[in-house]
What we know:
- By secondary structure, this protein is α+β, with helices and mostly antiparallel strands.
- The chain is 31% helix and 27% strand.
- It contains six helices and 13 strands.
- It starts with a helix and ends with a strand.
Amino acid sequence: MKNRARVLIVLFSLAMALGVAVAQKNKPWTEWTKKEAEKVLNNSAWGQTQTYTDTSEMTWSTAPRPIEGQGALNQATSLNYYIRFLSAKPVRQALARLAELDTASNSPKQVQNAREYINQKFDQIIVLAVSCESRDGRFYGPAFQAFNSAITNTLKNNTYLEVKGGKRIWLQEYNPPAQSGVGAIFIFPRTIDGVPVVDPNGGDLRFYSEFPNQAITLNMRFKIKDMMFEGVMEY
């Protein structure tokens, strides 16, 4: 009986997830709910979340603990890295939809700019946007500082897209989050010698970036076959 209950729970969860995916494909982005837009950004073929959890401060004590460094948290603390293909149209649609839904934070002009950005062409480049978030500012601060202080030259030898056969497409340009509004920007060439770097039948597309002298390593795989959107490969 217990096993059957577990199966039903799993099936219900899958049905809910599929329901969101079908809803996104069957209705225009202007009708997406906040939850549907966030799913495109954080848990989809074009946007994933990499979570780093620090368990070093989980020791519990009834006595006051001294504040040293980041402080004694007495709990696991997580830092989320949101890795998104900004050059993929559904990601830009999701960002525009969230802007529409949050009129308190966005002016009509900002919403209009987000809508217009949906049709931006990315014929020559692949663009990823990476942002980070943590409930604890002491944990978030160093990561944010690392993103803002990095430059192309410090990242270009440790940042790449890996495609079929282990071939690496190296970073072309990096822009810190202060300039973008959507996170740190990583730019890669879309073609090399006129040939697209991504093979539609290539399996996984891996994004990797290691920040020198910083405890940040971004490592995320995306399934190329799932990147079809409205009959077009979006990445």
